[in-house]
Design goal:
By secondary structure, the protein is of the alpha/beta class. Helix content is about 35%, strand content about 25%. It contains 13 helices and 21 strands. An 11-stranded mixed sheet has the order 13-12-11-14-21-20-15-16-19-17-18, with helices on both faces. It has a 5-stranded antiparallel sheet with strand order 2-7-8-9-5, covered by helices on one side. Helix 4 (about 190-200) crosses helix 13 (about 445-465). The longest helix is centred in the last third of the chain and has 20 residues, at about 445-465.
Length: about 475
């Protein structure tokens, strides 16, 4: 029977010793073959045809199969068994071409162990997005005999998407020791939002308190085919009253997070930030997307994409501070923050560049702490080391950003949506800056996105118990 890796701190790489391995244990990563990968292979091996590409009428642009071998090595070195593993042998069969844009799932499974030598044999299977096995074979390693933990320097690899589902499972495994929190689910009056709350409950993340007009809630339950027996429900006349009651419960400490249902974002947030609600802190509230795309080597945060329409410098400072707090909660001690603009130079005619420069100076003066900031940076310089070097940018942040700070909500929202719909990014959304986290999901969000958002709210809520915002 296949078992998963043990839960590990999201800020650590942790191995599995020989004694901890069992037959059937497996690990999987997913990657998309990009033009950069092909160029990297060409540079390493000096292929005459740049990128190891061969063009044929039948197959189009295909790549050197050793890319798949490198991914197998990545699983061995980071997942199973992990750091301290000695790679001894490899026997692979290349069954189909690797094509540019292919999304490869690389799974390794333990099939044999030798206690005398600590040798472990693992089967290897690389499967593309069409379910075709492209590479298969075996790898032989010597498993480590002692526990090794290595700190991650960037956001941990949390994959939230349906296709792999590995990262969602790792995130759920990480929060599994945490007790579920009571969450006010505000006006879940359609099948999607109601099902999302119940899915998070079934995942052990939340104890939902459903606040909605009783008749509408019953209709949504009937549409979703779910049973509300045993669930705490509060009857209110309309969505506005639901938001106000949820804020009241949070202010009294009766719930530790809020979750948006089928009401509009403005309606919920108006109740949260109202002076009478008692949920405001010294910070401006802001929204963060945690995104993972196969086209970027690590997860990252995009902010603000949903709350602050045209933030001024002081508001941007709070937006940055909130994102840093989220990165810390996930497990990143010193995230790299890129302050985005259209260009990477300061220009008086472009206010976003002036704000970016001021934010970086605020960090230099200790007004923003816990992260490394740089800006202004155009998006290409923030996420591509090659682009940054081409433009002569010397920076610890450029090309390695964990947090992307948009100049305004419109650009942030468009960036996040482009990544989701054109860049295959999986997402989780959360609002920070209030006394409780707010799960802010869209009607278009997947089940996995809603569960991941609740998992992050769970992390934040437990953090707030000892360090209130």
């Amino acid at each position: 029977m296949t078992t998963s890796q043990p839960a590990q701190a999201l800020g650590l790489l942790r191995n599995r010793t020989f004694d901890e391995l069992a037959l059937g244990d497996s690990a999987c990563i997913e990657r998309t073959l990009t033009q950069q990968d092909i160029q990297w292979l060409a540079g390493i091996c000096g292929d005459v045809d740049p990128g190891f590409v061969r063009s044929t009428r039948e197959q189009g642009v295909i790549a050197q199969g050793m890319w798949g071998s490198a991914l197998i090595a990545a699983v061995l070195g980071t997942r199973l068994p992990g750091p301290g593993t000695t790679y001894r042998s490899q026997a692979l069969r290349f069954l189909a071409p690797l094509q540019l844009g292919d999304r490869m799932a690389v799974r390794l499974t333990v099939v044999a162990k030798d206690p005398a030598t600590r040798c472990v044999t693992l089967t290897c299977a690389c499967t593309n997005q069409a379910g075709v096995v492209v590479i298969e074979g075996e790898a032989g390693v010597i498993a480590p005999d002692e526990r090794i933990e290595l700190s991650r320097s960037t956001l941990p690899e949390i994959r939230l998407d349906v296709a792999g589902n590995d990262g969602l499972q790792r995130l759920l495994a990480h929060v599994a020791p945490l007790q579920a929190i009571r969450v006010a689910v505000v006006h879940p009056c359609d099948a999607l939002s109601l099902s999302g709350a119940l899915d998070a409950r079934d995942a052990g993340l939340i104890v939902p308190v459903l606040i909605a007009p009783r008749a509408k809630l019953a209709a949504a339950a009937a549409e979703a085919g779910v049973d509300l027996s045993g669930l705490e429900t509060l009857d209110v006349p309309h969505s506005h009253a639901a938001a106000a009651r949820a804020a009241e419960l949070a202010a009294k400490g009766e719930v530790e997070a809020l979750m948006k249902g089928s009401l509009h974002t403005d309606e919920l947030m108006a109740a949260v930030v109202a002076s009478a609600a008692g949920l405001r802190t010294k910070r401006r509230v802001s929204h963060c997307f945690v995104l993972q795309t196969p086209h970027y080597p690590r997860p990252f945060i995009v902010t603000d994409a949903a709350i602050n329409l045209a933030p001024d410098l002081a508001q941007k400072a709070d937006i940055v501070r909130n994102a840093i707090d989220l990165a810390h909660a996930i497990g990143v001690a010193e995230p790299k923050v890129a302050i985005l603009a259209a260009v990477e130079t300061v220009s008086p005619s472009m206010p976003a560049t002036l704000d970016a420069a001021a934010l970086c100076k605020m960090a230099d003066r200790g007004q923003i702490t816990g992260a490394r900031l740089d800006g202004p940076l155009a998006l290409d310089n923030a996420v591509s080391i090659t682009a940054a070097r081409t433009k002569g940018i010397v920076s610890d942040v450029a090309g390695r950003a964990d947090i992307l700070v948009a100049p305004d909500m419109e650009s942030g929202n468009m960036l996040a949506k482009q990544l989701m719909y054109l860049g295959e990014a999986a997402s989780a959304g959360i609002v920070l800056g209030a006394r409780v986290p707010v799960v802010l999901t869209s009607r278009a969000d997947s089940r996995e996105s809603r569960i991941a958002s609740c998992a992050i709210a769970l992390l934040l809520a437990h953090r707030y118990r000892s360090a209130p915002p």
